[in-house]
Amino acid sequence: MAETVGQDSREPAVAELRKRRFERRKAAYRSARRVLARSSVLGTLRERLALLEAAGELYDLDESADLYGNGVVEVLEARVAGLLGTEAAAFFPTGTMAQQVALRCWAGRTGDPTVALHPRAHPEVHERDAFQQVSGLRTVRLSDEPRLPTAAEIRDFEEPFGALMLELPLRDAGFVLPSWEELTEVVDAARERDAVVHFDGARLWETTEHFGRPLHEIAALADSVYVSFYKSLDGFGGAALAGPRTLVEEAKAWRHRYGGQVFQQFPTVLSALAGLERELPRLPDYVRHARVVAAALREGFAAAGVPWSRVHPEEPHTYEFQVWLPYDCDVVAEASVRQAEETGTLLFARPWDAPGPGLAVTEIDVRAAGLEWTADEVGAAVADFVARLP
Of 27, 169, 290, 322, which is the most exposed, with the fewest CB atoms less than 10 Å away? Predict the structure, then answer.
């Protein structure tokens, strides 16, 4: 994000300004009385460790600690497999590793190392070409549209592929999802081409409200599914790969080869169990209230006289969505921080990015803290924020 990195060597003064603003935003977040979400990104070590204070309610702490993936790790794996309705699941330290392993295994089974995905999918944007550089996979890019590919695009794609990877939701396009009917048609189209289907479900936990289906029914569409424990569930980290037992057993062998056979992982695993117990049941409430907040933001910007604004999607598909404004990125970033410093209300907690000249975009997430906000309170916060713009 442009606000946070400060890597423009041509403008060291601007870079330093953005670095200082990031520190101010972090301090403002910690002291703010009102935010739409309290997440791990800007939390303190003390706040994060508090997640394990009631760990004894989740697992018998008199049991031996895990060693190389047994004990409490196996309990978490069984819990995930049960939730997703798969034969088995394997815990991984990162989603990047989990998905490389999954698609490498599928490539060995299909005989085709080609993975079809969206150009804004996480491996294409955020993983330094890991599929190609580390795992010997080849990616081909489907539709450039800011949405998941359609069944027609799958059927008409000009070259073969062994696996179709679908990121649900597609974060960099605005946390967007297809309809249930569209998703089933896409899966059917891939199967017509004899391709396996893998879900990048880092945030799959958030999709049940949009699809109107339970997790196991959503996961059943795919041959394998990856889920994250820190996205959506607010755990310390970690991921799981779920699917057929034979695939999962092979994946565990590759997990060892990739360096993922960690000696002990109980803090991360306990935090994942906490997320499944405490956060997972609340996600539908977050999604429903995110739609209230999104509508209030849209109406608030219009009432405040902003010449143009965009909430995307207009009705959020998950509890996360984007806000676009016609201002310079640094201008809105400064107004966001000043609002928090001066009023104790942090409306925009995440960084702002500059997708083009005179444009700024940020992401909103609505979690437990956001449930306390009424639509009127969101509108009032928008008016106060806009008053701080030039």
Answer: 27
- Report the C-alpha gap between 143 and 141 in whole angstroms: 7
Cα separation of the two ends of the chain: 22
**What is the value of pTM for the model shown?**
0.94
Could you tell me the maximum CA-CA distance found in the chain, to the nearest angstrom?
Answer: 61
Full pLDDT tens readout for the chain, 390 residues: 455 444 445 578 888 888 898 899 999 999 999 999 998 878 889 999 999 999 999 999 999 999 999 999 999 999 999 999 999 999 999 999 999 999 999 999 999 999 999 999 999 999 999 999 999 999 999 999 999 999 999 999 999 999 999 999 999 999 999 999 999 999 999 999 999 999 999 999 999 999 999 999 999 999 999 999 999 999 999 999 999 999 999 999 999 999 999 999 999 999 999 999 999 999 999 999 999 999 999 999 999 999 999 999 999 999 999 999 999 999 999 999 999 999 999 999 999 999 999 999 999 999 999 999 999 999 999 999 999 998
3-state SS of 339-358 is HHHHHCEECCCCCEECCCCC
CATH superfamily of 2-48+282-386: Aspartate Aminotransferase, domain 1 (3.90.1150.10)
> In b/e form, how buried is each residue of 29-58, taking b as 16+ CB within 10 angstroms?
beebebbbbbbeebbeeeeeeebbeebeeb
The owner of tokens 């539709």 is 143
Per-domain residue ranges for the chain?
Answer: 2-48+282-386, 64-264
At the top level of CATH, which class does the domain 64-264 belong to?
Answer: alpha beta
Tokens of 293: 């907040």
